[in-house]
Amino acid sequence: MLEIRPNCECCDADLPPDSPDAMICTFECTFCRTCVDVRLHGVCPNCGGGFTARPIRPAALLDRYPASTKRILNPAGCGLAP
Q: Per its UniProt record, what InterPro entries does this chain match (predicted)?
């Protein structure tokens, strides 16, 4: 099951569970769409893979299967500043 991480690993932008701007790689590294497009150019800095839009967990299931609250931030590893 996806962790549904709460933030962008580059800029620390909040990415709530229903965010259409959350992008993930196959290892669930989580970034905002802006960082993926502008800073990372579509390549995950952690694994070298590509990104896809993170699925949105239905709100009715968030109580039973909550999103993660653990924030991961690694601005040094996320490419050049825009």
A: DUF1272 (IPR010696)
Assess if residue 76 is contained within a domain.
Answer: no
Domain count, the chain: 1
C-alpha closest to that of 56 among 45, 65, 47, 46: 65
The domain of 55 spans 1-67
Q: What is the pLDDT of residues 38-82, one digit of tens each?
A: 999 999 999 999 999 999 999 999 999 999 999 999 988 786 544
Whole-model pTM above 0.70?
Answer: yes
Residues in contact with 20: Cβ distance below 8 Å, sequence separation at least 6, in sequence order = 53, 56
Separation CA 62–CA 58 (nearest Å): 7
| Distant-in-sequence, close-in-space partners of 35: CB < 8 Å, separation ≥ 6 | 8, 10, 11, 13, 78, 79
The answer to whether position 73 is within a domain reads no
